[in-house]
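Regression test attached.
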Amino acid sequence: MIEIKNLTVAIEDKQILNGLNLTVNDGEVAAIMGPNGSGKSTLSYVIAGKADYEVLDGEILLDGVDILEMSPDERAASGVFLAFQYPLEIPGVGTMTFLKATLNAQRRARGEGELSTPDFIRKVNGAAEKLEINKEMLRRALNVGFSGGEKKRMEILQMALLEPKFCVLDETDSGLDIDALRIVSEGVNALRAKGRSFLVITHYQRLLDYIVPDVVHVMSQGRIVKSGDKDLAKALEASGYAEYRTGEAA
Amino acid sequence: MPAVQETIDRVRSIDLDQYKYGFETTIEMEKSEKGISEDVVRFISAKKGEPEWMLAWRLEAYKRWQTMKEPDWARVEYDKVDYKNIYYYAAPKRPAAMSLDEIDPEILKTYEKLGIPLREVEVLEGIAPERRVAVDAVFDSVSVATTFKAELSKAGVIFMPISEAIREYPDLVRKYLGSVVPVTDNFFATLNSAVFSDGSFVYIPPGVRCPMELSTYFRINERDTGQFERTLIIADKGSYVSYLEGCTAPKRDDNQLHAAVVELVALDDAEIKYSTVQNWYPGDNEGKGGIYNFVTKRGDCRGNNSKISWTQVETGSAITWKYPSCILRGDNSRGEFYSIAVSNGMQQVDSGTKMIHLGKNTTSRIISKGISAGRSQNTYRGLVSAHRKATGARNFTNCDSLLIGDQCGAHTVPYIESKNASAQFEHEATTSKISEDQMFYCQQRGLSNEEATALIVNGFVRDVLQQLPMEFAVEAQKLISISLEGSVG
């Protein structure tokens, strides 16, 4: 599904990712944990194609195709989705308008027909209900005046509508209370399917109690330094990142 | 949102050459001699077969104009206009058409290319399912066609070129012409008074609701020609009219002058809604060419309970100097100003409104949305004032500016004057920028650069677009996207 090979990335001459290798298999949920500054968010931005990052070496293959040359919207149409740690507010643009514009833009880019308005509304309502997003929220401008939890739920709603192949969740648990964490996690779990894989970036093991990963990777100094099953996350929670920080200093 | 989709398709369909109305029509023209003089004023008046009083009015204006100085207080910079080097009158050689069949086919083709429905017959016969809008088309200095005349006259509505109205309804014209914008009002208005060649005249009789939208379409075609149109709209007691105005011009390397005067008069209980989509050629990206748009527009809410509403979408012109205003003379009268001003490239816009509260319990509302991109400068300049007797006057003003890129400027210059303690004036203003993070967020969800900009900008101007008649709103939305083409990325 996704193969990242020898990814080396700098921002403003500072090298952040140092020959990172990572494979996420079809249908797999992989978690990435690691201390602050280990390059987790950089990895998510580089996958999504944010400007400002200079890729010095390596490749990112989605189903065998290198996406590094693609623009962010082309990557999106190919099935890459990033759930932002801090979703942006778009004043004046109704949530429904935004959802429809993005969904149809992706469909057009893939050569599929646009969704009719009734079909679109049915689809949104179905997905919104599961995430406990009410109609009033859908009527507001996108993310404007939303609470932290509402914004995160809106990210998952978009993920559900766009049906991506590869979903990156960048610290989706940050700023969520227990109830919101449960709703968001259930939303993600409902999307787990063959043909769709996830990369869940988090500091805390707590999220992984709800979204149980198939694989856990530990990231430090811009590369994956250890991989294991879900018990690795639990071990990390107990011991902390000290071991890996020492690695940094060495 | 089908409109958004249409915007996107429209943006897609255009190539790098953004200004699609830049073509030129080749047609034989009759012009006055170059420059301005008493003889030129007389020439224009004679061409129009005007009565003596009209000529005297023009000559008086010309005399005054010679003593006046071009205003320089606006935040715009440009090479001064050489008034000696302009043609003040240019008209297609064929005489004015009595019916659509008599119009020079080249002109008809021009308007067809511009998407202006002049062929009312087809509409009436139901061949072309166009919306029913009566159009007065002004080509350089003269009106070439007015549609739906017969149907309008059944309702008692007078809609004709002002040159015709001066001959056919001299009393009406004489009573109102210059009564809102006096001959000596300002440099450009005075110049217009001396040399105006055509424009539209509208009179709605008492109690009549005009049965269709009225529209004037202005086209500057001829090189080195100034367009000085004059529009006069009178809504008699209890009447209603909605009027649309559109404008384009061919691309040229030199600047062309457009100095129009529009006067609106609303008597007791009457309402005038005036909408403009201004798309004069803005010049190229280096600031070469483009129209100087120096326009005086003013409405007089002369009667009690009258209402005048200006809505403008300004995307064109190299320089815009324009302040559609309302004099709220009648008690309980209301003035509105809704504006979207888009500037890109090297365009300079200094636009806004004046709301002059004279009568009791008069209200006004100003919603201005300025969008600056490229290396353009966009200024909102507004005045809200309450006269001593304007007890209970109220105004609400909201000015929002959106910046795209970091080389453009947005400026807000509001003046507020109140001589009545009971007046309540509110002013809100914001300035924001489309951030790179917002763009990235939209792109991550699958929108291209252009689609993302269009979406964000449409969100920004939505309040004002809602004020436009529906078809016009769709058109305006497209125009805004096209104007901003290439401004991001």
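Expected vs. actual: identical. The mean pLDDT of chain A is 91.
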